[in-house]
Amino acid sequence: MDTAVECRGLTKIFDGFAAVDHIDLTVARGTVFGFLGPNGAGKTTTIRMLACLIRPTSGSASVWGLDVGRDYMSVKRIIGYLPESPGYYPEMTPLEFLRYFGRLFRVKNQGTVVEEALKKVGLYDERGLEVKSFSLGMRQRLNIARLLIHDPKLLFLDEPTSGLDPRGTREVRDLIRALGEGGKTIFVCTHILPEVEMVCEEVGIINKGRIAALDSPDGLRSKVKASNVIEVGVGRGGARPDDLVTMIRSLPWAKEVTVKSEGVIAVEVGTLEEKRPELARLLVQWGADLLCMKLQEPTLEDVFMSYTR
User: Fold this and answer.
1) How far is CA 193 from CA 26, 76, 206, 236, in A?
2) 86-128 residue pLDDT tens
3) What pTM was computed for the model?
4) Which of 141, 151, 210, 239 is the most buried (most CB within 10 A)?
């Protein structure tokens, strides 16, 4: 496997505290990798070491085969790093902003490269406006465009949707997905679980400075015990869902009963195998047009809570 990132025993200690504690991690090239963890788990410290902003205390890490301690200048040329709170120049236009960074990176064919970057992030039509007039989502997309102008092999994004409204979040999420589909390797640090489910192929969970789990989203879900919730689908030809909910709630072993969506009732029970047949029998007895019953699949939130509690 061609690796984009490889860590072996990577450790960072601040004043006797191990913010990152002997982690082993491998990320394949061409992957959108999600790095999950609660606040203070070590996500940002890890990404800053990989981006050559701080030096590891011990262990080793490489990016595209380059050692982050020894080859840090070469690493910086092939990565793009977006911190959690990126800066911008409010009086500049997007064109001026990207041309400025294009000169810093000594980008050839700067005019064409800048225009293509703006098109990729959907800001070409706004290229002449001042950045101070942009929404937070637009500014974040502009900063991602800044990462693209020197055509890096790997993007490090630290909480890229933090503080954004739903529209801005969706814009940035769609952009990350499009860049991944276009072949970019992306390392995303976040604690926002829906973002990971929607865009990431591989996921690492870090907790208290250590890797707690590493797998695909489906692989992680398969390792967590199924919930004790039964989902019941009922048709319109029988008893009303609201009436069924009232009757289910009268059962002593039904801990929580909710209507998830039209015609779908979620029932939390004590023991799955014992209560599923009984629940089906009672629903039919009560006149339900019973369409299906299934166990509620574990979510990435269930996985996250399981590994970080």
Assistant:
1) 21, 29, 14, 34
2) 888 999 999 999 999 999 989 999 889 999 999 999 999 999 9
3) 0.81
4) 141
Residue 308 domain-assigned (yes or no): no
The C-alpha atoms of residue 25 and residue 159 are separated, in whole angstroms, by 19
Judge if 116 and 158 occupy the same domain.
Answer: yes
* Rounded-to-integer distance, Cα 217 and Cα 204, Å: 9
Query: Structure tokens of 68?
Result: 């982050």
Domain boundary among 222, 252, 271: 222
Residues 207 and 63 in one domain: yes
Domain check: are 112 and 201 in the same one? yes
pLDDT category of residue 169 using cuts at 50, 70 and 90: confident
Residue where a domain stops, chosen among 199, 222, 245:
222
Is 298 within 8 Å of 30 (Cβ atoms)?
A: no
Residues 170 and 247 in one domain: no
Domain that holds residue 155: 3-222
Position 135 in a domain: yes
Give residue-wise pLDDT tens across range 173-193: 899 999 999 999 999 998 778
pLDDT digits 0-9 by tens, 58-96: 999 999 999 999 999 999 999 999 998 888 899 999 999
* Total structural domains within the chain: 2
With respect to residue 302, please indicate whether it lies within any of the assigned structural domains. no
Asked whether residue 54 falls in the same domain as residue 117, the answer is: yes
